[in-house]
Amino acid sequence: MYSFDIQRPTSIADAVAALSTDEALPLGGGQTLIPTLKQRLSAPSVLVSLGAIAEIKGVCTGDDGALCIGGGTTHATVAKEAASSYPALAALAGNIGDPAVRNRGTIGGSLANNDPSACYPAAALASGATIVTNTRSIAADDYFQGMFATALNEGEIITEVRFPVPEKAAYMKFEQPASRFALVGVFVAKYADGVRVAVTGASEDGVFRWTEAEAALSSNFSADAVPAAPSGDGMISDLHGSGAYRAHLIAVMTKRAVAAAG
């Protein structure tokens, strides 16, 4: 890796100040950034660690009943502390990577990176979550803007993610066995006003809502109501699977998620 300085602020205000220069990058759990530095694909002169900011950690229930998770909260903590209030989200967090990743990686870091095969983007989009930063609140429908692209501005920090808790929900992931990223992952969430279905790992544009499935499942929440697989056009095609294969998996994983949600 290149040499760099590291700062470890203890408040959001200090972190924002430290990130005000073009040479600085935020460091959450480091599960993506550290390998990037090792491969010399990024060479910041300053890393601003967010790990010492207590105010962006923890899980609680908001006044409106939403599950509120601090941006600096690790996957392992989400898996443990969200189990009673949002089991589907807790199960998703508990199956990310391996124990080392789950105890270092954070929900805010995952959403800020927006890897096209990451699990949390599907949960946030299917739940209609709100991503809260140090300056504003962003609806999940507006937040995800393509592969590795989000609505975040330079120096903006995810401080909290608010998840409306659904009546029923489940996440099903067809894993790439080496990385445990989603070759295709589908999160289904049923609310009083309808069903939301979000797909990760499949599209060249990153996480997306499968609106045809949402319409069908809002009328009949059963695996039999899941429509035929979408077109393979625009789906990722690589050594792990073709676009047509990933499109087929979308329908399969959606059916499994609906069945698991009950």
TrEMBL record:
Keywords for the protein's UniProt record, in alphabetical order: FAD, Flavoprotein, Oxidoreductase
GO molecular function: FAD binding; oxidoreductase activity
UniProt-listed PROSITE patterns: FAD_PCMH
Superkingdom as given in the UniProt entry: Bacteria
Ranges for domain FAD-binding PCMH-type: 1-168
Entry keyword Oxidoreductase: yes
Gene3D superfamilies documented for this protein: 3.30.465.10, CO dehydrogenase flavoprotein, C-terminal domain, Uridine Diphospho-n-acetylenolpyruvylglucosamine Reductase, domain 2
Record flagged with keyword Metal-binding: no
Entry-linked PANTHER family: XANTHINE DEHYDROGENASE SUBUNIT C-RELATED (PTHR42659)
Protein name: Carbon monoxide dehydrogenase
Organism of origin: Marivita geojedonensis
